[in-house]
Amino acid sequence: xxxxKILSLITVAVMSATMLAGCGETTDVTSEKxxxxxxxxxxxxxxxxxxxxxxxxxxxxxxxxxAKYPSVTATGQFTGSGTGIEAVxxxxxxxxxxxRALKDEEKAAGLVENIVAIDGIAVITDKAxxxxxxxxxxxxxxxxGEIKNWKDVGGADSAIVVIGREAGSGTxxxxxxxxxxxxxxxxxxxxxxxxxxxxxxASTPSSIGYVxxxxxxxxxxxxxxxxxxxxxxxxxxxxxSLQRPFVMATKGEISEQSDAVKLWFDFMKSEEGKQIIQxxxxxxxx
Length: 286
Prior knowledge:
alpha/beta; 2 domains
């Protein structure tokens, strides 16, 4: 689904919710700090950097948030989870978007792991591939270079072209951690964008790759893992094993951030925020 279509659906949903709520609401924005004492209009910026897998979510949320709160400007850059975590650590970003859980050393440096959504990692292959299902052990063996031909896992007699993300990618870190194959993978190609993995697998015969579930489209074929398809329902049920958190990391607790950043997190936790999360194909955390 295109970003334009997503935003159209969100707009319709938000307008419907507003009509149901009535017309008596004030347009003032109340900060979390002053909500019981006085009403203040929050202004400022929310600068985010990080995961390319979170691009669709962040762009959709920014569009609605900026329209709702014109005195605050939320923006996102998409340079990879590692870069985003580095940016929030050194203070060049308010929020570091990461498509993996924070490491112990990152938490020790003062970062707080704010999980805003759950995403599935879809394993994909080109449309012509006849292999449709792998076990987790087979998938791990393929990425470690131990299984090199599709005929050994139910496919045609063809060499497997192993495609993945670059070092520092949150998707790669989560994928390898779930399978227990950190620093053991043998890649034919390492790409620095989620979209690049999708298009490369689609155009490369006998290839395999992994992408965020929310970008999955009909240019590739998803592979079931242990007989379970990568779907939102299966992730919610806990039956699909390749899933990960979408984290908006802050340096210190949310309560220690600027009013603009606190307002952003209030928005992401609101019904509007949850609706956006669901519309882009992700799962809410509560």
